[in-house]
Amino acid sequence: MDASPDTMSDSSTNRRKNEGGWMSAETLSRALPFIQRHAGATIVVKFGGHAMSTPELMAEFAKDIVLLAQVGVRPIVVHGGGPQIGSMLSRLDIKTEFKDGLRVSDMETVGVAEMVLSGAVNKAIVSAVNCAGGRAVGISGRDARLITAAPKAEGLGFTGVPVATDTRVLTTLTDAGFIPVVSPISADTSGDGYNINADTVAGTLAAALGATRMILMTDVEGVMDKSKRLLTDLSRTDVQGLIDDGTAQGGMIPKLTTAMDAVAGGVEAVVILDGRRAHGLIVELFTDEGAGTLIHA
Ligand SMILES: Nc1ncnc2c1ncn2[C@@H]1O[C@H](COP(=O)(O)OP(=O)(O)O)[C@@H](O)[C@H]1O
Ligand SMILES: CC(=O)N[C@@H](CCC(=O)OP(=O)(O)O)C(=O)O
């Protein structure tokens, strides 16, 4: 962890040498109206597999989540880990394919996805948040029947969609000051595991919880047009257009679909931003500039 305020800048060597302290104070002061706006709000943050690709990015993300909790936001982390599942499948010599951005999952694949996501990836995020001074609790869609799954479609096997939610485990944890970290692997009523895309789970939970924001952290600056220019502001109708005309492809399709569902379900806005750059969450929530692409009703 970084030096604490006790060990930092209190020594006579650092004091009054430059204007850094005044600039930090100015930044903090300018953040006040944003901190007031978001205090008490539930914000669902989806942390994608690419966005967590280095220990440094994981540690910076964890600090941002702890900062949100510290200023009174109720953050709920939903994580992916597609590349991490992919590398385990290839180590096990299991072939994998995607249809419209979703992994076609037979029983063996969903078993590996559960081991990787609800095991290694979930605990790595919990550990990072705890090391940053928060109190994270790792769960999956299965736990406390948070998400009931059903098959997405014929031929996609155990690739699932959420059909029901019971968010009491999340509100119980956030009421008590804990930070929930949710793996998207869920189960049907007979206990069979389903692999659900993490963006879809984030959108479903954001709507069910009445979250004010859902933030999807990914490996691009935001949603791009056909000439690769960043689109900063999109309505639901714009988003449907990007899917229909093929501008959005692959993994961007479940993100945009879930964003449209979330805003239709009452979430004020969805933001898709670059998780490869540290502190995008803070720029988006606590500054005028914002980051990435904002999707609203
Ligand atoms: N119009 C678009 N704008 C931005 N990214 C797009 C677009 N269409 C497709 N993509 C792809 O979507 C990817 C993000 O989805 P995905 O790989 O599933 O991310 P994550 O692992 O973070 O969930 C980008 O890396 C990009 O290749
Ligand atoms: C059905 C489906 O596609 N599930 C995803 C779950 C992980 C995920 O969504 O990870 P990212 O957010 O890192 O892409 C998968 O198996 O890759």
From TrEMBL:
Site (Transition state stabilizer): 46, 255
GO annotations of cellular component type: cytoplasm
GO MF entry, a single one: acetylglutamate kinase activity
EC number: 2.7.2.8
Compartments where located: Cytoplasm
Pfam families: AA_kinase
Family under the similarity heading: Belongs to the acetylglutamate kinase family. ArgB subfamily.
Protein name stated in the entry: Acetylglutamate kinase
